[in-house]
Design goal:
The chain has 13 helices and 13 strands. The chain is of the alpha+beta class. The chain has a 5-stranded mixed beta sheet with strand order 5-6-1-7-8. Strands 9, 10, 11, 12 and 13 form a 5-stranded antiparallel beta sheet that branches. The chain has a 3-stranded mixed beta sheet with strand order 3-2-4. Helix 11 (274-295) packs across helix 12. The chain binds thymidine-5'-triphosphate and magnesium ion. Keywords: Cytoplasm, DNA damage, DNA repair, DNA replication, DNA-binding, DNA-directed DNA polymerase, Magnesium, Metal-binding, Mutator protein, Nucleotidyltransferase, Transferase.
Length: 373
């Protein structure tokens, strides 16, 4: 690993852990294909048919065959229909997916006790210590992929590395059915070639800002001093400075240790103007932070819930690089998610802001590196 010129207080990487990130391939679509094998090999789109919803539905996911036509998650079903008229529209069955998700979780438990479920189809496994006593996390990931396939007839992609940040990037690297291991010696090259948008916490607005600063990939980011990045991006700048050096000490946290704190508001009259949404997000963020302060806890993952006029409800999460403690930080992430996924034209019936993955504040204080103020 080439670090270039090392300064005496350059942060160090911890490469002692072995982390696997698993993400199911086209999850909802794959479950539907398993349940109805006649869909095999066809462009399957998980959404109600636009003809049945007056064109109002949204695609939750699509099989890889449908993706070839440009169909993707969060796209209006009407647009998906225009891109792929021969697509087979299947309405989602969330209870079934939750059940399958639990079956996947049960498989993980054969390998380690340290499992962090990130969403219905995604989890981190810390396999530094594992039930098979294997030293190779790559071999273990392969076994997990086979196990899931044998037992559930579903495929997944796996990423293996020494921290969560890189493991997650790795699982996405060769989807579907991928297995990518990023050894500590490869990490720097891997991070250098990474487009800036792929760094955790970098939303659309930050990408624009980075591009204005001539930062397009990890290598450009790496050139910037910690001082500059903090000046430009605050706490996120410090986190990015570490991430691009392959440093991420965040632990894999067991589901049972996780908590969340959220507030939501249903509106008597649907919101139709963006300013109303922004104002509401600010108010919700304030309430969440107030509740959080009482509990002496903080978290990094923000979940925005939006219910549209047609009652379709979407939730979208984003993980911030640092613990969120202030109203302004929470508000900014919620706003960022809104800008990524929100659709004002559909009328907003409900908004919710939740902070999840909460840790007691005391816990972080104990772990704070000296140079972090
Ligand atoms: P993802 O893992 O993001 O997508 P995926 O599993 O369908 O495809 P990939 O092979 O790229 O991992 O999300 C998991 C499930 O979550 C997905 O099957 C459907 C649901 N989902 C939504 O409902 N809305 C969304 O905007 C996204 C991104 C996913
Ligand atoms: Mg997936």
């Amino acid at each position: 690993m080439q670090y270039g010129l090392l300064t005496f207080n350059e942060p160090k990487r911890d490469v002692s852990r072995k982390i696997i990130h698993i993400d199911m391939d086209a999850f909802y679509a794959s479950v539907e294909i398993r349940e109805n094998p006649s869909l095999q090999g066809k462009p399957v789109i998980i959404a109600r048919h636009p003809k049945d919803t007056y064109g109002r539905g949204v695609v939750t996911t699509a099989s890889y065959e449908a993706r070839k036509y440009g169909v993707h998650s969060a796209m209006p079903a009407q647009k998906a229909y225009e891109l792929c008229p021969q697509g087979i529209f299947v309405p989602g069955r969330h209870e079934l997916y939750r059940q399958v998700s639990e079956e996947i979780y049960a498989i993980f438990k054969h390998y380690t006790n340290l499992i962090q479920k990130v969403s219905v189809d995604e989890a981190f496994l810390d396999v530094t210590e594992n039930h098979l006593g294997l030293r190779s996390a790559t071999l273990l990931a392969q076994k997990i992929q086979h196990h899931i396939y044998e037992k559930l007839e579903l495929t997944c992609s796996a990423g293996v590395s020494y921290n969560k940040f890189i493991a997650k990037l790795a699982s996405d690297y060769q989807k579907p059915k991928g297995l990518t291991t990023i050894e500590p010696s490869m990490a720097q090259d891997f991070l250098w070639q990474l487009p800036i948008k792929d760094f955790y916490g970098v939303g659309k607005k930050t990408v624009e800002r980075m591009h204005e600063l001539d930062i397009y990939d990890g290598k450009d980011l790496y050139q910037r001093s910690e001082y500059d990045l903090v000046q430009l991006f605050g706490k996120m700048g410090r986190s990015l400075y570490r991430k691009v050096r392959g440093i991420d000490d965040s632990p894999v946290i067991n589901e049972r240790d996780r908590k969340s704190c959220g507030k939501e508001h249903t509106f008597g009259r649907s919101l139709t103007r963006e300013e109303q949404v922004i104002q509401e997000l600010r108010q919700l963020s304030k309430s969440v932070i107030q509740a959080l302060k009482k509990h002496q806890s903080h978290g990094k993952t923000v979940v925005l819930k939006i219910r549209y006029n047609d009652f379709e409800t979407i939730t979208k999460r984003k993980t911030f690089p640092n613990y969120i403690k202030e109203e302004e930080e929470l508000f900014r992430v919620a706003q960022d998610i809104w800008e990524d996924v929100g659709n004002m034209e559909r009328g907003i019936r409900l908004l919710g802001v939740t902070l999840t993955g909460l840790d007691p504040i005391l816990y972080e204080n104990l772990k704070l590196p000296l140079w972090e103020t």
